Amino acid sequence: MISTSSPPRRYLLVGNPNSGKTTLFNRLTGLRQKTGNFQGSTVEKKVGIYPTRFHDRLEIWDLPGAFSMEGITEDKKITAEIVQNADESDRILYVMDSTQIERSFQFLTSILDRGLRVLVVLTMLDLLQRRGLDLDLNQLEKCTGIQFVPVNPKTGEGIETLIQLLEDEESFRKGIPIWSGKATDLEEEYILKSIAIKKILSNTLIKNTSVESLVDLDSIDSLLLHPVYGLIIFLGIMAVVFQFLFHWAEFPMELIAKGILFLQNLLRETIPQGPLGSLVIDGALGGVGAILAFLPQICLLFFFIGIMEESGYIARASFLMDKFMGKFGMNGKAFIPILSSAACAVPAILSTRTIESREDRITTILIVPLIMCSARYPVYILVIGTVFPQEPVLGYISIRGIVLFFLFVLGLLTSLTFGLLFKKLLLRKSPGFFILELPTYRMPSIVSLLQIVWVKVKSFLVNAGRIILTISILLWFISYYPLQRTETGEYRSTIKTSYAAAIGKIIEPAIEPLGFDWKIGVAILASFAAREVMVSTLAILYELDGEDEESTSLREAMRNDTRPDGSLIWTPLTGISILIFFAFANQCMSTLAVTKKETNSYVFPAIQFLYMTVLAYVSSFLVYQVGTLLEKSLFISEKVVF
Amino acid sequence: MLQKIDSSGLEPSLIQEIREQGFLPGVELRLLRSYPTSDKIIVSLNGSIVLAIPMALAQKMNLKKIDRRKTTDI
Question: ipTM of the predicted structure?
Answer without folding.
Answer: 0.84
